[in-house]
Design brief:
The protein has 175 residues and is mainly alpha-helical. It is 75% helix and 2% strand. The chain starts with a helix and ends with a helix.
Protein backbone atom coordinates (compact mmCIF):
# COMPACT_ATOMS: atom_id res chain seq x y z
CA UNK A 1 0.00 0.00 0.00
CA UNK A 2 2.88 2.34 0.76
CA UNK A 3 4.44 1.73 -2.66
CA UNK A 4 1.08 2.21 -4.38
CA UNK A 5 0.70 5.50 -2.53
CA UNK A 6 4.04 6.71 -3.90
CA UNK A 7 3.22 5.54 -7.43
CA UNK A 8 -0.11 7.38 -7.40
CA UNK A 9 1.61 10.49 -6.07
CA UNK A 10 4.29 10.39 -8.76
CA UNK A 11 1.68 9.72 -11.46
CA UNK A 12 -0.09 12.91 -10.47
CA UNK A 13 -3.34 11.24 -9.40
CA UNK A 14 -5.94 13.42 -7.75
CA UNK A 15 -5.15 13.27 -4.01
CA UNK A 16 -8.86 13.54 -3.22
CA UNK A 17 -9.92 10.54 -5.32
CA UNK A 18 -11.22 7.58 -3.33
CA UNK A 19 -8.13 5.42 -3.84
CA UNK A 20 -5.55 8.12 -3.11
CA UNK A 21 -7.45 9.51 -0.14
CA UNK A 22 -8.02 6.10 1.48
CA UNK A 23 -4.43 4.96 0.85
CA UNK A 24 -3.18 8.11 2.53
CA UNK A 25 -5.62 7.70 5.41
CA UNK A 26 -4.58 4.07 5.99
CA UNK A 27 -0.83 4.51 5.65
CA UNK A 28 -0.35 7.89 7.32
CA UNK A 29 -0.06 6.44 10.88
CA UNK A 30 3.01 4.48 9.68
CA UNK A 31 4.51 7.36 7.72
CA UNK A 32 3.99 10.15 10.26
CA UNK A 33 6.70 9.11 12.78
CA UNK A 34 9.33 8.98 10.05
CA UNK A 35 8.22 12.27 8.57
CA UNK A 36 8.87 13.88 11.94
CA UNK A 37 12.25 12.12 12.25
CA UNK A 38 13.61 13.07 8.84
CA UNK A 39 11.90 16.37 8.26
CA UNK A 40 11.79 18.08 4.87
CA UNK A 41 15.48 18.97 4.80
CA UNK A 42 16.77 15.38 4.90
CA UNK A 43 14.37 13.52 2.63
CA UNK A 44 11.92 14.47 -0.07
CA UNK A 45 8.37 14.54 1.25
CA UNK A 46 7.06 12.01 -1.30
CA UNK A 47 9.83 9.46 -0.57
CA UNK A 48 8.97 8.99 3.09
CA UNK A 49 6.40 6.22 2.33
CA UNK A 50 9.10 4.23 0.47
CA UNK A 51 11.49 4.57 3.41
CA UNK A 52 8.63 3.52 5.68
CA UNK A 53 7.95 0.44 3.53
CA UNK A 54 11.61 -0.60 3.70
CA UNK A 55 11.70 -0.10 7.47
CA UNK A 56 8.46 -2.06 7.96
CA UNK A 57 9.92 -4.91 5.91
CA UNK A 58 13.17 -4.85 7.90
CA UNK A 59 11.21 -4.71 11.16
CA UNK A 60 9.15 -7.72 10.11
CA UNK A 61 12.25 -9.72 9.24
CA UNK A 62 13.86 -8.80 12.56
CA UNK A 63 10.82 -9.79 14.61
CA UNK A 64 10.45 -13.02 12.63
CA UNK A 65 14.12 -13.79 13.22
CA UNK A 66 13.80 -13.22 16.96
CA UNK A 67 10.72 -15.43 17.14
CA UNK A 68 12.46 -18.06 15.01
CA UNK A 69 15.37 -18.10 17.44
CA UNK A 70 13.10 -18.20 20.48
CA UNK A 71 11.19 -21.35 19.48
CA UNK A 72 14.16 -23.81 19.53
CA UNK A 73 15.44 -22.36 22.80
CA UNK A 74 12.07 -22.79 24.51
CA UNK A 75 11.77 -26.29 23.06
CA UNK A 76 15.20 -27.25 24.43
CA UNK A 77 14.35 -25.77 27.84
CA UNK A 78 11.05 -27.70 27.84
CA UNK A 79 12.88 -30.93 26.92
CA UNK A 80 15.37 -30.40 29.74
CA UNK A 81 12.52 -29.90 32.19
CA UNK A 82 10.72 -32.96 30.79
CA UNK A 83 13.71 -35.29 31.25
CA UNK A 84 14.44 -33.87 34.71
CA UNK A 85 17.68 -32.09 33.78
CA UNK A 86 16.68 -28.80 35.34
CA UNK A 87 20.04 -28.35 37.03
CA UNK A 88 22.42 -29.30 34.24
CA UNK A 89 25.01 -27.74 31.99
CA UNK A 90 22.71 -28.12 28.97
CA UNK A 91 19.95 -26.21 30.76
CA UNK A 92 22.40 -23.47 31.78
CA UNK A 93 23.51 -23.17 28.15
CA UNK A 94 19.91 -22.79 26.99
CA UNK A 95 19.22 -20.20 29.69
CA UNK A 96 22.26 -18.22 28.51
CA UNK A 97 20.90 -18.33 24.94
CA UNK A 98 17.49 -17.18 26.20
CA UNK A 99 19.04 -14.33 28.21
CA UNK A 100 21.04 -13.19 25.17
CA UNK A 101 17.94 -13.26 22.98
CA UNK A 102 15.89 -11.31 25.52
CA UNK A 103 18.70 -8.76 25.77
CA UNK A 104 18.71 -8.35 21.99
CA UNK A 105 14.92 -7.89 22.12
CA UNK A 106 15.38 -5.21 24.81
CA UNK A 107 17.91 -3.35 22.64
CA UNK A 108 15.57 -3.70 19.67
CA UNK A 109 12.65 -2.21 21.62
CA UNK A 110 14.83 0.58 22.96
CA UNK A 111 15.85 1.42 19.40
CA UNK A 112 12.32 1.17 17.99
CA UNK A 113 10.02 2.77 20.58
CA UNK A 114 11.23 6.38 20.21
CA UNK A 115 10.22 6.29 16.52
CA UNK A 116 6.62 5.82 17.65
CA UNK A 117 6.61 8.74 20.05
CA UNK A 118 7.47 6.88 23.26
CA UNK A 119 9.63 9.23 25.30
CA UNK A 120 12.34 8.47 27.80
CA UNK A 121 10.01 9.41 30.64
CA UNK A 122 8.03 6.27 29.86
CA UNK A 123 8.63 3.63 32.54
CA UNK A 124 9.30 0.78 30.08
CA UNK A 125 11.72 2.82 28.01
CA UNK A 126 13.58 4.05 31.09
CA UNK A 127 14.00 0.43 32.27
CA UNK A 128 15.19 -0.63 28.81
CA UNK A 129 17.60 2.30 28.78
CA UNK A 130 19.02 1.38 32.20
CA UNK A 131 19.46 -2.27 31.22
CA UNK A 132 20.95 -1.78 27.76
CA UNK A 133 23.03 1.38 28.15
CA UNK A 134 26.06 -0.38 29.77
CA UNK A 135 26.57 -2.35 26.55
CA UNK A 136 25.63 0.35 24.03
CA UNK A 137 27.53 3.29 25.57
CA UNK A 138 31.09 1.99 24.90
CA UNK A 139 30.14 1.08 21.33
CA UNK A 140 29.07 4.65 20.57
CA UNK A 141 32.72 5.68 20.28
CA UNK A 142 33.01 3.53 17.16
CA UNK A 143 29.54 3.21 15.63
CA UNK A 144 28.16 6.75 15.28
CA UNK A 145 28.06 8.07 11.72
CA UNK A 146 26.99 11.69 11.73
CA UNK A 147 23.46 11.81 13.12
CA UNK A 148 23.00 8.04 12.90
CA UNK A 149 23.72 6.03 16.03
CA UNK A 150 24.48 2.50 14.86
CA UNK A 151 25.66 1.32 18.29
CA UNK A 152 22.38 -0.52 19.11
CA UNK A 153 22.58 -2.46 15.85
CA UNK A 154 26.24 -3.28 16.47
CA UNK A 155 25.38 -4.38 20.03
CA UNK A 156 22.63 -6.69 18.75
CA UNK A 157 24.99 -8.28 16.22
CA UNK A 158 27.81 -8.71 18.75
CA UNK A 159 25.49 -10.25 21.35
CA UNK A 160 24.03 -12.63 18.77
CA UNK A 161 27.54 -13.73 17.77
CA UNK A 162 28.93 -14.15 21.29
CA UNK A 163 25.94 -15.70 23.10
CA UNK A 164 25.91 -19.10 21.29
CA UNK A 165 29.66 -19.44 21.80
CA UNK A 166 29.39 -18.78 25.55
CA UNK A 167 26.40 -21.15 25.80
CA UNK A 168 28.36 -23.88 24.01
CA UNK A 169 31.31 -23.38 26.35
CA UNK A 170 29.11 -23.61 29.43
CA UNK A 171 27.14 -26.61 28.22
CA UNK A 172 30.32 -28.47 27.29
CA UNK A 173 29.52 -29.02 23.62
CA UNK A 174 32.70 -27.24 22.45
CA UNK A 175 35.77 -29.45 22.54
Amino acid sequence: MLVLRVILNWAGANPFSRLSYNLTRLTEPLVRPLRYQFGRRTLRFDLVPIVTAVLVLALGWSVAGLIGQLAPILTAIGNNIWIGAIVSRAMLGELIKLTGLLYVAAIFLRFLLPFFGVGYRNKLLSILFAVTEPVIKPLRRFFVLGMFDLAPIAAMIIIQLITPFIAALVSGSVG
